Amino acid sequence: MKMKQPEPFMFKGGERAVLLLHGFTGHSADMRMLGRFLNSKGYTCYAPIYRGHGKTPEDLLDVSADQWWHDVDQAYQYLREQGYQKIAIAGLSLGGVLALYLACNNPVVGVVTMCAPMFFDNEEQLTIGFRQFAKDYKELEGKDKETIDQEIEQLVINSKALFKQIESSITKVKENVGMLYAPTMVIQAEQDEMINPESANYIYDHVETDQKEIKWYKHAGHAITFSKEKDQLHEDVAAFLESLDW
């Protein structure tokens, strides 16, 4: 069965641009509802897809975490080249880590992290998430259970090097988050089953900006942009963006 591959999106609005960054195993659809909402408020919203994402689980293992750093750098530069000089960044999960990295190294109006990990005490949890992603994908392909189970076990073995790279990436950003001076909003789901929620407090406590806030969502899980609290999330992110000095 051939499945339609997701694509990046660009919702054009005014001169204020928001770069929307998806998480590990995800793609632009993770940010589409938020992007549509912010676009309705006048923002230009751009969501790239990092290499290896939005494809098969095997494709995801053919790339490196370093390539994702390059991909988000390119996405930021793309907005600049399109004439957008006022850029904020919002990222989900690993996208939040990448958003912090970008904001520490480039001029941004503000940054929003959503369920972004800072502690790599969750390798097993990441593996569970990767297993689920692979299982869902292979079921859509119409494969039988025995084949799926065999292929997933091989994928998990082959993924070890990539998970080490992800660990290194998270640690690098954690060690440098004190270099962030841009206004920051930290968002965390209380029912997050994927990361240590204390990551949110770590980010909030260590960013250097005086303009920062933290918001907890009691009834949301890790995929907060799809949660039952997504409408409140949209309003809160929009309110934070409106508070910035554009």
How would you characterize the overall build of this protein?
The protein has a single domain, classed as Rossmann fold (3-Layer(aba) Sandwich), CATH 3.40.50.1820. The chain has a seven-stranded mixed sheet, sandwiched between helices. It has helices spanning 29-40, 57-60, 65-81, 94-105, 123-140, 145-158, 160-176, 198-206, 230-242; strands spanning 9-11, 16-21, 44-47, 86-92, 110-114, 184-189, 212-217. The radius of gyration is 17 Å and the shape is globular. β2 (16-21), α1 (29-40) and β3 (44-47) form a beta-alpha-beta unit. The chain is built from nine helices and seven strands; from the N terminus they run ββαβααβαβαααβαβα. α1 packs across α9, α3 (65-81) crosses α4 and α4 (94-105) packs across α7 (160-176). The protein is of the alpha/beta class.
In short:
By secondary structure, the protein is α/β, with parallel strands linked by helices. It is 47% helix and 15% strand.
